[in-house]
Amino acid sequence: MNKTAIAIHGGAGTITRSSLTSTQETAYKAALQEAIELGHKALTQGKSAVEAVALAVGSLEDCPLFNAGRGSVFTKEGKHEMDAAIMCGKTLKAGAVAGVRSIKNPILLARTIMEHSEHVMLSGYGAEEFALNHGIAFAPERYFFDTFRFEQWSQVRDSDTYQLDHSENHDKKFGTVGAVAVDVHGNVAAATSTGGMTNKRYNRIGDTPVIGSGTYANNLTCAISCTGHGEYFMRAVVAYDVSCLMEYKGYTLQQACEEVVMKKLVALGGEGGLIAVTNAGEIALPFNSEGMYRASKTADQKTFTAIYK
């Protein structure tokens, strides 16, 4: 049997000890712990990496602390537009959804697209129609309402500016959640979900649902889920770039992550990070920002959780 491993993230950015109270820190770590244990349990039960990452991300979507699913930020119109993607490293099949509203768990919709359609990405009303046809759960607007998110939006809603998810005015936080895993069969998978940017307009879509940019999985190399300023991650095709360095240049996972996250992205001005896992159970959690909500667990080892650099 292959050694199982799973890693998750809840966003990156300017996350310092001074920007979180001890109560907030405890809450974030508890949410990360719950999500990763849920995914890890699925792996120990012999379930697929796809199942594990979907469960972990679904748990983070249900937690209002993170900018995805229930905790999604407000758009310019005072609504919520969510993106998500999932990919199977064994088959290279993928599913993605962009700009959907009222979907309780966008990652579940992305998985359903991957498993029950001929398409990779659906968006907007069409994606919601597909969700209705496949019994995906919807939720009313009040489900997505959060006082902290509303106050974030209130600060900028009368302007033409958008802002990244943050906890204080001077802090930037890239609001995305994600998971990567390898199962007992040596298959890897990746999943990512986000509520986007506060006060965003024009149905802006970031890197999260773009296969190869924010999400990618390939048994030959690794599975990756990204978190950062999406425009830069799309320009750099970050997730696929890490995989390509491993496949075509023989880089190790750590070497590939170092090259892309710490060098290429930095040169472009891109801030953020990613989580990655190989089919051998190697894990990487690189980020060039001050912090990243993250957790990992390999086989029967103790769960690792961290926020700061």
How is the topology of this model organized?
Elements: E1 5-13, H1 22-44, H2 49-61, E2 82-88, E3 94-100, H3 106-116, E4 121-123, H4 124-133, H5 141-144, H6 147-156, E5 173-174, E6 176-182, E7 188-194, E8 215-217, E9 223-228, H7 230-236, H8 238-249, H9 253-268, E10 272-277, E11 283-284, E12 291-298, E13 304-308
Protein name: Isoaspartyl peptidase
Pfam family, one: Asparaginase_2
Keywords: Autocatalytic cleavage, Hydrolase, Protease
Q: Any overview of this molecule?
A:
The two termini are 34 Å apart. The chain is an alpha+beta fold and 309 residues long. The radius of gyration is 17 Å and the shape is globular. Helix 1 (22-44) packs antiparallel against helix 2 (49-61). The longest helix has 23 residues, at 22-44. The chain has helices at 22-44, 49-61, 106-116, 124-133, 141-144, 147-156, 230-236, 238-249, 253-268; strands spanning 5-13, 82-88, 94-100, 121-123, 173-174, 176-182, 188-194, 215-217, 223-228, 272-277, 283-284, 291-298, 304-308.
